[in-house]
Amino acid sequence: MNLEIPKGLQNFVDGAYALAKTTFRPISRKYDELEHTYPKELDLFAAMLNGANDGSGGAMGGAKGDGKEKAERTGVRNGGNMSNVLNIQAMSYGDVGLLLAIPRQGLGNAAIAAVANEEQAKRFEKTWAAMAITEPGCGSDSAAIRTTAVKDGDDYILNGEKIFITSGERADSVVVWATLDKNIGRAAIKSFVVEKGTPGMELIRTERKLGIRASDTAAITFTDCRVPAKNLLGSPEINIEKGFAGVMETFDNTRPFVAAMALGCAEASLEKTRELLKEKIDLNYNTPINNVKAVEAELYRLEAEYEASRLLTIKAAWMADNRIPNTLEASVCKAKAARVAGQITLKCIELCSSLGYSEGELLEKWGRDSKILDIFEGTQQIQQLIIARRILGKSSKELK
Ligand SMILES: Cc1cc2nc3c(=O)[nH]c(=O)nc-3n(C[C@H](O)[C@H](O)[C@H](O)COP(=O)(O)OP(=O)(O)OC[C@H]3O[C@@H](n4cnc5c(N)ncnc54)[C@H](O)[C@@H]3O)c2cc1C
Questions:
Q1: For this structure, is 41 an active site residue?
Q2: What is the pLDDT of residue 363?
Q3: Claim: this prediction has a pTM higher than 0.85
Q4: 20 to 30 Å CA-CA from 395: which of 149, 205, 303, 363?
Q5: What would you report as the CA-atom Rg of the chain, rounded to the nearest whole angstrom?
Q6: Which residues are bridge partners to 195 per DSSP?
Q7: 72 C-alpha to center of ligand 1: Å?
Q8: Catalytic residue among 118, 202, 377, 398, which?
Q9: How far does the centroid of ligand 1 lie from the alpha carbon of residue 142, in Å?
Q10: What would be the CATH architecture of the domain defined by 7-115?
Q11: Superfamily of segment(s) 245-392
């Protein structure tokens, strides 16, 4: 197994780091303070990204079809998921809130890439899609969704309330999870692309938050909101056997992306800490860990945790590119990287003490930003539950 970054991607990754440093870092503090203001500097960024990926779904886009020709040639593929993970880490090293605010890089775009049929993928190619699963009475247990979708002629009529929608205010459309029949449970949950401005769709508030303040988080209600039936992503059939699998496929792609965001925050904090402490410590990596200063030993341990998280993340992305089922690995990397990023960013604040705590540096911001990565796309506890189910061969009914 060779886990080096493929040469073909290295230049692209280097470019992403350079952009993150020169474009994200200088405006990082500004948009942390100006919560709910759209960072207009991102327009240029979005245009560049869209040009680079030829409109195929953005940084959050999944891997359908990516790298196919290369796979046929070599049998091994480093496609859309791998390049997205590397790109997302680099951008998050710049600023994870700004990354989440880039137009057309929404989690809804990933859902479209993972679940849409060919016609839908083409139709929604240019949309910026947010993703709306969470409701006032339903977070971790997404099977408890109460938003309903009722077929009426060529449309579905949606009713319900969605909260904490990343980019919900700014995106062109929202991928809304709704149930066709509350009595059937998970199998009846489908996702619908609802375009902004559809009658019956109303933005009711935006949230003020601990971190990722450059990214807007919205609550939206749907009241008799009529959506064309062709906007239901994937198959309209309720397949009890397959159950939730269709919509859950999205997470196999997106959890490694969230892990990559965590890696970016952690990497930025480690680098800044080494820089701030360079007069006081000697990181030469030759002295045994029991013979170095306590602060050096601490940094070595954090670096090892960072590296373990990184390897798990690129493994999960590589599996997705190579069509190897990766539900377990996607949860493992998300659980590990998000937890480690929280530990690293907070420990770096501690190691740099007053400098770490002050707004003069971005360390305190990275500490605040990293917390969400262990909450959205499934909390730490939920990832551990998924991992346990996979390892023990238990269903979600058997292990709750
Ligand atoms: C900034 C931000 C952005 C977000 N963006 C989006 C978005 O774009 N789209 C979207 O749909 N949602 C989004 N969310 C919502 C997010 O996904 C949910 O907050 C998350 O799924 C947890 O749900 P909850 O907050 O309702 O907590 P709960 O589900 O109520 O959980 C509370 C606590 O209980 C634990 N817990 C729950 N069930 C179990 C269990 N079975 N075993 C052990 N522990 C358990 C949880 O881990 C957590 O610690 C966002 C949230 C925030 C804060």
A1: no
A2: 98
A3: yes
A4: 149
A5: 21
A6: 173
A7: 40
A8: 377
A9: 9
A10: Orthogonal Bundle (1.10)
A11: Butyryl-CoA Dehydrogenase, subunit A, domain 3 (1.20.140.10)
